[in-house]
Every structure is written in structure tokens, then in C-alpha cells.
Amino acid sequence: MIIKSSEKEYVYSLSKDREIEISGNIGKSLIVIHDGRAYFKSSPCSNKTCIHMGAVQEENDWAACLPNDIFIRVE
User: Fold this and answer.
1) Burial class (CB in 10 A: 0-12, 13-18, 19+), 37
2) What are the start-end ranges of the H helices in 1-75?
């Protein structure tokens, strides 16, 4: 899985559970990897669409927090 912010790109395996805090344009987003899936647990955006998108787990699945400029994608 790839997490991309405006400043960096990170690569994580979906096979290891973890919580990842990523800094974006308006603050920090918390992304959780659990049971082979990844999702936004919290984000500083006002509408929380990224959280409501749910988990990604299959190749080419993605979720994004556009106000915070953070994008996650499964490869």
C-alpha cells in the first residue's frame, strides 16, 4: 500500500497491523492498517469524507483526504 502526501510517499505492507500518522496540508491524519485493510481513522478535514470512504484492501482501491492532500492506494 502507498500513502502519498504533498511532501512524501510511504510504502507499507497490509500484512502488518499498525497506526500511521501522516502530516498533510491542514494537519495530521491517522491511517490504520488492520486485518489486511487500510482506512482513515481520523483527519482534520471538516467533512470527513475520507473516513466515510471505508477501508481499502484490493489492488487499485484508493481513499483520499483532499483537503489534507493525503492519498492511499493499494498496489
Assistant:
1) middle
2) 49-52
Give just the sign of the alpha carbon dihedral 15, 34, 23, 48. Answer: positive
Residue 70: the pLDDT is 98
CB 41 within 8 Å of CB 51: yes
Mention every residue, 6+ apart, whose C-beta is less than 8 A from residue 35.
17
Is there a contact between 55 and 40 (Cβ–Cβ < 8 Å)? no
pLDDT in the model for residue 44: 97
Which residues of the chain have a pLDDT value below 50?
Answer: none
Q: pTM for this one? A: 0.94
